[in-house]
């Protein structure tokens, strides 16, 4: 079997002579299984396939969109003072089955974790400070449904594949446009729908134009009633030792909706 990945890049990087040299020292094309992958099927890539493959079957995948069409995107403009209360109100309204909340720093993640844990949510914390063994345990708890919410930084969440994530909250708009796509791509997978909610506060709203340019569309804006935000919130917990989550299993129905039309 021969697998050639990034065939177009082999041309761009000048490796095609080496590739052909290797092919000449392999069994004939009709005596091996050949698989060729390429982001683009240019003439020269097709020529290589014709040279090295017998009766090749071409399989084309639709071009990848920057954001999945099954993901509902939503944007709010909270003040810094109302941001945490808006997040907690949205969580109570949406009542997500499985949600990931992204923030730009580990300290902000710890702050979010403290507020949600104090409010009784089953929430896990994933930052760069989390050891690999504990990281795997938290992910296992989240995947099994023992945790409803995961608060994470981009670095800590890099490369994670978690099924059935229903909601992604961008508590902070990311500084890197690609991180926005990676974040919301955690939901809406495998044919399922997903919901992405972003909070553009004064601190990170300046990142929005670059993000919208990168994804090729404006994120729909929703409004909220500041007077309807949750106020009966307990004092946040402080992270004093390694934790995987806190709070009892959620029961009952979500609270009344507090968003304006």
UniProtKB/TrEMBL annotation:
The keyword Nucleotide-binding applies. GO terms for molecular function: ATP binding; hydrolase activity; nucleic acid binding; RNA helicase activity. Residues 232-261 are annotated as: Disordered. The gene is rhlB_2. The keyword Hydrolase applies. Keywords: ATP-binding, Helicase, Hydrolase, Nucleotide-binding. Belongs to the DEAD box helicase family. It comes from Escherichia coli. GO terms for cellular component: cytosol. SMART domains: HELICc. InterPro entries: DEAD/DEAH_box_helicase_dom (IPR011545), DEAD_box_RNA_helicase (IPR050079), Helicase_ATP-bd (IPR014001), Helicase_C-like (IPR001650), P-loop_NTPase (IPR027417), RNA-helicase_DEAD-box_CS (IPR000629). Residues 85-230 form the Helicase C-terminal domain. This is Putative ATP-dependent RNA helicase. Its EC number is 3.6.4.13. Pfam families: DEAD (PF00270), Helicase_C (PF00271).
């Amino acid at each position: 079997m021969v697998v050639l990945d990034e065939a177009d890049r082999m041309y761009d990087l000048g490796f095609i002579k080496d590739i052909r040299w290797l092919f000449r020292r392999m069994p004939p094309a009709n005596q091996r299984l050949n698989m060729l992958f390429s982001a683009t099927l240019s003439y020269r890539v097709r020529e290589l396939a014709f040279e090295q493959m017998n009766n090749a079957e071409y399989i084309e995948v639709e071009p990848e969109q920057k954001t999945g069409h099954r993901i509902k995107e939503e944007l709010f403009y909270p003040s810094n003072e109302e941001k945490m209360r808006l997040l907690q109100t949205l969580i109570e309204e949406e009542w997500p089955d499985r949600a990931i909340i992204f923030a730009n720093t580990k300290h902000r993640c710890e702050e979010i974790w403290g507020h949600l844990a104090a409010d009784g949510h089953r929430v896990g914390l994933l930052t760069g400070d989390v050891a690999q063994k504990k990281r795997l345990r938290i992910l296992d708890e989240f995947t099994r449904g023992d945790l409803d919410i995961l608060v994470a930084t981009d670095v800590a969440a890099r490369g994670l594949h978690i099924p059935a994530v229903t909601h992604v909250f961008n508590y902070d708009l990311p500084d890197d446009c690609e991180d926005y796509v990676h974040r919301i791509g955690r939901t809406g997978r495998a044919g399922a729908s997903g919901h992405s909610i972003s909070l553009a506060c004064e601190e990170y709203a300046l990142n929005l134009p670059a993000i919208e340019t990168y994804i090729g569309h404006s994120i729909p804006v929703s409004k909220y009633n500041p007077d309807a935000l949750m106020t009966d919130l307990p004092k946040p917990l402080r992270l004093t030792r390694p934790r995987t989550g806190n709070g009892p299993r959620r029961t009952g129905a979500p609270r009344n909706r507090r968003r304006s039309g």
